[in-house]
């Protein structure tokens, strides 16, 4: 028996079946960096339209987690797809380097600045620490295949950047947005610093709630505001006992700072006759809250003897419960009837509403607490007490004075410091603010949102609602590791120096050289005249780190040659509507009057398979490092693309395993194409479009249409769509149809025949395009494929633009519609064959002969394929007959088509495995079919269609 194996064109490629990514990717990375791939991309992109994605800086502390990985991979997919779309899309990664968390780490190592170690050494250590964190994170980002200027990232602690942050402050000051004020801000008594809104988190806390009586100073005057009931309390209508307004508070420690009681102007207030401690008493309460309050006080027997509206009580006076202080009754919009008494104890030092309503009535702050939360020495009764511990003492005093009506514990949601996890207090302190109103910043910012595109589009509402609620932005911090608020203020008037703008530039020039220490080392006399130096002092506060990152449009986009502002897009997690997107918008408007971005894209957070947040205690943390060290970075990247980022992004070991399965489908498809390009030289072997077989042209056309969809999906940042389309192309169009059919032609026709070269030409076009489609997602694999495609080519697929040699089937005799209907017929026949196989009528399709009973239309269509219909159906024989002749044929899902399957009675050809009548009839090759003999000895088989 002759072995015909050597006469077949069997597939062959060096492209490995197994990805082995964890091992192979580092080698590829080494090549990318040895060959300076990123710089090469810049070179080929030179002169093209720019596309600027501005990197939101991660904080330089700790290892990167899966959220960082998602964020950077999405950015990388955008950058790479934009490069493929013909843009010059540089990527300058950045890090946020100043701020409290790093300061805390260094405190842990060295002790507090100014205490165990001098400030300068402390800052140097912070700088060193941040640099090391950057190094660690950078290695992981690079390992994931993210390309950028890793050797020259932007760091907010670069001297140049620090100088430009100061310049941005100068610009904002010039434009009139900077104001100094006393204001209650979230204050961490443990950190000794004001906190940004974004640093506040809510946790449950048990507090003491108390109800306290504030006795009337002039009873007759107070009572004159009430209308008396005429029925039921005749003669006693004015009642008896002390008259008092009752307040309710969950922060007893604020009572020393109590300066007013706020009422709702339109709320109804009741005068209650009752007994307290066995004595007759008259209490003033919001009428809707009387019942719940009385329950709290355990008073069952009471009568409403008079009523009034809050507005009529304005200006009446009561006494502070334990100080000799007159407390006015005032009116405010923030009084509600949800809880309490309707009479709101008001301490402008410790609440925003209190502060604002106090301002209206000209009631200032008292400043009783120092930075560490200790009552100052001038505070009667409580000097030296800590704010966290003083509540019981306040309650004791109130009780002693006979002012307490009720006390109880309550659990409520209370603001905490995100870093130290300790309860925050509101505290009025001198701070620097960017005013939302003074120069119309808020309204300009709101209006400017019209120019910003949001992906997903609900981002706009979110941004608007957060922006509209944003109070003046407190940008000052009392910290060590931060960019200085480099201002001189007058000792007495606290006014800014009239030359502030010029002074800031002088400071910036020094900071450019020496870093921000230049400011801290500076003496006023170094820059100011001798006379001014006597009257002006340096501000020693540092800037909120959100200011640092917020002005990177100024310090980075405007500064770096390869970038520009406004950026085309900012891409961050959806929490940044509140954080970086806001700080960037506000500083963009405050410096230049326009938003620093044209588009905002947000992605969701990562959660486990059950939708839970990742946490060490739940044991559901997926570390990106573990994924790229075991499965490979391409699996992580493929998972990101295959997950809808507009919602929460689910990840688990199981999900990643499934991703690895999908990856294999993509890889195997590429491998099949490459292995069948064996011996194909695109320069000499390509077949002209018009000479290609119809089915091959269909495949190229299909790839072209897919490419249009892929590009459109990338353009709209719909990576999930890219993933699904490409995956379907691999499994349905190629795996389930085209590649299945062409195997026979590839293997059995003559190696240089038109039949085979036509098919190779199609596969060549497809793999050229395919490598590019997947390059933004599975960059390593795409580049690996790229190296294995025959023909002259550039060093990396990442240097390419979309493939342009795909062609359209438009105008072909057997067009798209035609082949689509053939595809449905083939599926129907496959099903019939599968059923027959299940019933053990026969084995594979080549054991079968089929007869298709078709209506006239189908008969004519399928008839066009002639004898090649059997190659399309992958059966040894395929006949067409009119539907009317169908007797025992089975129905199919295709209208007008019935199929009958029978086992072939003929011998199997040794070479092509088709069962043909002529096997054994040809003397020279007794085990071959006729067309195999033609392919082995003759001129070779001619194929027209498939
Ligand atoms: Zn044969």
TrEMBL record:
Zn(2+) binds at residues 909, 912, 929, 932. Residues 28-651 form the Aminoacyl-tRNA synthetase class Ia domain. This is Isoleucine--tRNA ligase. Binds 1 zinc ion per subunit. It catalyses: tRNA(Ile) + L-isoleucine + ATP = L-isoleucyl-tRNA(Ile) + AMP + diphosphate. GO terms for molecular function: aminoacyl-tRNA deacylase activity; ATP binding; isoleucine-tRNA ligase activity; tRNA binding; zinc ion binding. IleRS has two distinct active sites: one for aminoacylation and one for editing. The misactivated valine is translocated from the active site to the editing site, which sterically excludes the correctly activated isoleucine. The single editing site contains two valyl binding pockets, one specific for each substrate (Val-AMP or Val-tRNA(Ile)). It comes from the Bacteria. GO terms for cellular component: cytosol. Monomer. A motif ('HIGH' region) lies at residues 58-68. InterPro entries: aa-tRNA-synth_I_CS, aa-tRNA-synth_Ia, Anticodon_Ile_BEm, Ile-tRNA-ligase, Ile-tRNA-ligase_type1, Ile-tRNA_ligase, M/V/L/I-tRNA-synth_anticd-bd, Rossmann-like_a/b/a_fold. Keywords: Aminoacyl-tRNA synthetase, ATP-binding, Cytoplasm, Ligase, Metal-binding, Nucleotide-binding, Protein biosynthesis, Zinc. Signal peptide: none annotated. Catalyzes the attachment of isoleucine to tRNA(Ile). As IleRS can inadvertently accommodate and process structurally similar amino acids such as valine, to avoid such errors it has two additional distinct tRNA(Ile)-dependent editing activities. One activity is designated as 'pretransfer' editing and involves the hydrolysis of activated Val-AMP. The other activity is designated 'posttransfer' editing and involves deacylation of mischarged Val-tRNA(Ile).
């Amino acid at each position: 028996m002759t072995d015909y194996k050597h006469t077949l064109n069997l597939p062959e490629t060096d492209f490995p079946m197994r990805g082995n990514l964890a091992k192979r990717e580092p080698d590829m990375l080494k090549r990318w960096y040895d060959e300076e791939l990123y710089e090469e991309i810049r070179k080929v992109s030179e002169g093209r339209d720019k596309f600027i994605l501005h990197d939101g800086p991660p904080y330089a502390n700790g290892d990167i987690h899966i959220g960082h990985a998602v964020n950077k991979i999405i950015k990388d997919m955008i950058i790479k797809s934009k490069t493929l779309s013909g843009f010059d899309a540089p990527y300058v990664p950045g890090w946020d380097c100043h701020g409290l968390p790093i300061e805390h780490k260094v405190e842990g190592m060295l002790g507090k600045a100014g205490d165990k170690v001098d400030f300068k050494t402390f800052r140097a250590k912070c700088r060193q620490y941040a640099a090391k964190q950057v190094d660690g994170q950078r290695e992981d980002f690079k390992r994931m295949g993210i390309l950028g200027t890793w050797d020259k990232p932007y760091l907010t602690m670069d001297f140049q950047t620090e100088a430009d942050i100061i310049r941005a402050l100068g610009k904002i000051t010039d434009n009139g947005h900077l104001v100094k004020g006393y204001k209650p801000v979230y204050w961490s008594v443990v950190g000794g610093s004001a906190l940004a809104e974004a640093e506040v988190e809510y946790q449950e806390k048990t507090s003491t709630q108390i109800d306290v009586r504030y006795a009337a100073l002039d009873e007759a005057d107070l009572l004159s505001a009430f209308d008396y009931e005429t029925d039921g309390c005749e003669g006693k209508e004015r009642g008896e006992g002390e008259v008092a307004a009752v307040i309710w508070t969950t922060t007893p420690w604020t009572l020393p700072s109590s300066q007013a009681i706020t009422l709702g102007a339109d709320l109804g207030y009741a005068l209650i006759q009752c007994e307290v401690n066995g004595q007759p008493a008259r209490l003033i309460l919001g009428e809707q809250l009387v019942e719940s309050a009385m329950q709290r006080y355990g008073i069952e027997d009471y009568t409403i003897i008079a009523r009034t509206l809050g507005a009529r009580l304005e200006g009446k006076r009561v006494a502070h419960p334990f100080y000799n202080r007159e407390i006015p009754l005032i009116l405010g919009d923030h009084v509600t009837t949800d809880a309490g008494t309707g009479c709101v104890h008001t301490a402008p030092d410790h609440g925003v509403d209190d502060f604002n309503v106090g301002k209206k009535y000209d009631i200032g702050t008292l400043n009783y607490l120092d930075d560490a939360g200790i009552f100052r020495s001038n505070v009667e009764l409580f000097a030296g007490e800590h704010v966290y511990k003083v509540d019981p003492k306040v309650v004791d005093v109130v009780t002693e004075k006979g002012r307490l009506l009720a006390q109880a514990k309550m659990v409520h949601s209370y603001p905490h410091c995100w870093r130290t996890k300790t309860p925050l207090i509101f505290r009025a302190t001198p701070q620097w603010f960017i005013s939302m109103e003074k120069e119309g910043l808020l309204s300009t910012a709101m209006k400017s949102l019209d120019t910003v595109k949001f992906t997903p589009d609900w981002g706009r509402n979110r941004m608007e609602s957060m922006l509209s609620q944003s109070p003046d932005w407190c940008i000052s911090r009392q910290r060590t590791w931060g960019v200085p608020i480099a201002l001189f203020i007058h000792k007495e008037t606290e006014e800014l120096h009239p030359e502030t703008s010029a002074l800031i530039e002088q400071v910036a020039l020094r900071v450019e050289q020496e870093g921000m220490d230049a400011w801290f080392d500076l003496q006023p006399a170094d820059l100011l005249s001798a006379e001014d130096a006597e009257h002006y002092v340096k501000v020693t506060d540092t800037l909120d780190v959100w200011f640092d990152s917020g002005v990177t449009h100024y310090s980075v986009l405007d500064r770096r040659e390869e970038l520009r502002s406004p950026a085309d897009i900012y891409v961050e997690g959806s929490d940044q509507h509140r954080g970086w997107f806001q700080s960037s918008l506000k500083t963009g408007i405050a410096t230049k009057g326009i938003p620093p971005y044209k588009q905002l894209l947000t992605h969701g957070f990562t959660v486990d398979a059950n939708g839970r947040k990742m946490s060490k205690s739940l044991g559901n943390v997926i570390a990106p490092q573990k994924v790229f060290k075991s499965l490979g970075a391409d699996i992580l990247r493929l998972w990101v693309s295959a997950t809808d980022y507009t919602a929460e992004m689910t990840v688990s070991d199981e999900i990643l395993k499934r991703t690895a399965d999908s990856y294999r489908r993509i890889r195997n498809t590429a491998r099949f194409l490459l292995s069948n390009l064996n011996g194909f030289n695109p320069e000499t072997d390509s077949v002209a479009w018009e000479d290609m077989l119809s089915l091959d042209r269909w495949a190229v056309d299909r790839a072209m249409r897919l490419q249009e969809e892929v590009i459109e999906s990338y353009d709209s940042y719909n990576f999930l769509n890219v993933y699904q389309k490409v995956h379907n192309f691999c499994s349905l169009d190629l795996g389930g149809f085209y590649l299945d059919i062409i195997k026979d032609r590839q293997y059995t026709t003559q190696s240089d025949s038109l039949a085979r070269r036509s098919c190779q030409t199609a596969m060549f076009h497809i793999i050229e395009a395919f490598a590019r489609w997947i390059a933004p997602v599975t960059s390593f694999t795409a580049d690996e494929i790229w190296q294995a495609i025959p023909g002259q080519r550039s060093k990396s697929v990442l240097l390419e633009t979309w493939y342009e040699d795909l062609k359209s089937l438009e105008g072909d005799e057997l067009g798209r519609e035609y082949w689509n209907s053939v595809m449905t017929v083939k599926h129907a026949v496959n099903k019939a064959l599968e059923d027959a196989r299940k019933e053990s009528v026969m084995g594979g399709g080549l054991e079968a002969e089929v007869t298709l009973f078709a209506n006239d239309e189908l008969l004519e269509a399928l008839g066009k394929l002639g004898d090649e219909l059997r190659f399309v159906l992958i059966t040894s024989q395929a006949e067409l007959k009119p539907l009317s002749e169908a007797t025992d044929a089975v129905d199919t899902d295709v209208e007008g088509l019935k199929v009958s399957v029978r086992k072939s009675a003929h011998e199997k050809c040794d070479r092509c495995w088709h069962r043909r009548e002529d096997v054994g009839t040809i003397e020279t090759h007794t085990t071959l079919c006729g067309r195999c003999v033609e392919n082995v000895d003759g001129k070779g088989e001619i194929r027209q269609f498939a």
